[in-house]
Amino acid sequence: xxxxxxxxxxxxxxxxxxACIRAVVRTALAHHLEVIGFRHGYEGLMKGEAVxxxxxxxxxxxxxxxxxxxxxxxxxxxxxxxxxxxxRTLARMKLKGLIVIGGNGSLQGAWELSKKTRTAIVGIxxxxxxxxxxxxxxxxxxxxxxxxxxxxDRIRDTATSHDRLFLVETMGRNRGxxxxxxxxxxxxxxxxxxxxxxxxxxxSQKLEKGKKRGKSSSIIVVAEGDTAGxxxxxxxxxxxxxxxYDMKVSVIGHQQRGGAPSAFDRILASQFGAAAVEALLRGxxxxxxxxxxxxxxxxxxxxxxxxxxxxxxxxxxxxxxxSR
Length: 324
Fold this sequence. Notes:
Blueprint: E1 4-9, H1 17-30, E2 34-38, H2 41-47, E3 50-53, H3 80-93, E4 97-102, H4 104-114, E5 120-125, H5 141-162, E6 164-170, H6 177-186, E7 190-192, H7 200-212, E8 218-223, H8 231-241, E9 246-251, H9 263-281, E10 287-292, E11 295-300, H10 303-306, H11 313-322
Parallel strand pairs: 1-2, 1-4, 4-5, 5-10, 6-8, 6-9, 7-8
Antiparallel strand pairs: 2-3, 10-11
Helix pairs in contact: 1-9, 2-3, 5-6, 6-11
């Protein structure tokens, strides 16, 4: 009898999910495993919204953003009754394992589910925020950075043409990985992060020094969870300090979640997908795929939310030096 494994995508979407599903399906088929996909994340798992996935099911999806399995956030799954319902689905379908592609919240849900089921569970980290503990990078982060940098490049043309100061807000929830990478790659004159107390006096002085050197336009990248309350509130405060600036605010929203995944994300997603299947074949349970110092490994699943990944101090220093 052919063994079966399940797969679902949970939480917010991001580029690279389809590439990951493709890798899971084709790696599983190479090992003579049947793959069952659950639509709409944990909500679909509870309801039994299952579809069999074959090689043709994942043909032509590696370049597509989003997830063809669909995704959702489920309040019902966060209850004991919801987890029990999901566990019954796994038992009824007699799955050897379940692969959950999600962020730290979804992976914590997978860990909670693992305590109520005999089905082995392996997580795959995805997030444009790159805030999942235990891994250097998550699926979707690289593409989101590239999207934000493209926006920065376009805004810089306008900023230069009109001698303007732009505050550009990125996503990232309460972590600054996306904003820091965007600021560094986009050549921003400053970056405001949730992890560092915002000092508007210092920022104002820095901008004034630049202006005295002849700099007529500047871009400040603001993480959405910064300590000063977001780009619009910061702009209102800066206008009181910097009277002679033409200041504009631009918020980069869900564009960062969509679009075709970058080559890096396609490769990482493919590596993670294959590694998750291989982990199940080795008999691993409650683990998560990860990349550490360019090596694909597995780590305990609870690393995903228990470990608070620090910002790269060398990138912080470099961003400060290059923005002077």
